[in-house]
Amino acid sequence: MRVQIYLGRFGIVGLPSLLRRSGTWWLNEFLDLFPERLAQRLRGRGRALLVIAPDADKGGAALELRNGARRLIASEHATPTNLPTAIDRFLHSRDVQQADADIGLRLPSERLFRRQIRLPAETIDAIDAIVAQDLAKKTPFKPDDIYSDHIALEHSGGNRITVQQWVVRREYVQQALATFSIDSEQLAFVMFAGCDHERPEPLINLRPRGHAPHSWYQRTVLALCCGALMLGLLAVSLKYWRQQATIDRLNEQVAAVGTKAKQVRALVDQLQEKKNALLSLRRQRNEAPGLIDLWEETTRVLPSHSWISEFRLVETAGKHEQQVTISGFSSAAPSLVGIIDSSSLLFDAALTSPIAFDPSEGRERFTLQAKVKMPEAFEEAAR
Description:
five-stranded antiparallel beta sheet, 29% strand, 3 domains, alpha+beta, 15 strands, single chain
């Protein structure tokens, strides 16, 4: 998706990029609440456009009345000898005053010179000056011999801006107007016929740009930006006030439960005694063999024709006993019970499932269980 930004007369000059974007978005969302015709007028696009299109085949010109969005409303053919009168009659028949309409000229696309410039996004506030300098340095055109205009297309990534610039020689405009006895000072814009629709439709504005920054639209954008800043400050202040109120409330609650802390302290002292006994029991428990010790002892006593596929250490709830479960493969599985029983850390070994021969391994699959020998001090403490 691309965001189109009109510079110069249709743009916002001198505002920081962030404020410009937020203000424009806010204003557009607000104007979308109004009927389309009223919204277009509030956006500065409510003026009608009268397009004079010279017709070389029929002679004279085609008069086209378009709205601010350049959509065609009505059209008719006029002769070149009486074009000003025909324009007044045409606008009057559509209930449009000439003072409320911008008159423009449409030329063939062959008269248009189009160029494209890519610029960093940071240059958005100086695009007018940059484009003018680039046109003077890289093209043979002289400012007094041409009309030019441009728009900037800001890509969604936000790091590059593509500028579309259009240029037409003044002599082409003067030649087209000479046939109709119309002064170029009456023109507000120049359009072009036969251009592709994949790119922005060329429109060269001929009106002075000096009054643009003082338009109602831009003042509203600035006001909305200031309003957004004020709302942001208000939101921060409100959040701070709520946090402070919460802190004050918590302080009152802490003071209210201060007396209960003494009672809790007495209970803590009682629990401390039990905790000391528990710590003593845990220290004794640490002396019991761990998982690594049991694993090393098991692998030490097992013969070379046997290996383990699963080793688990489980504590029996309520009895303070630990048991190991060993699963694996062996060439003489029944003999493993006595071997495990002879260990210094394990005793009371027994098979927990029938011995089965595994064809893929070529050995007997076994699962046995044995109890872990606990230190005498730990057994006494557990009792």
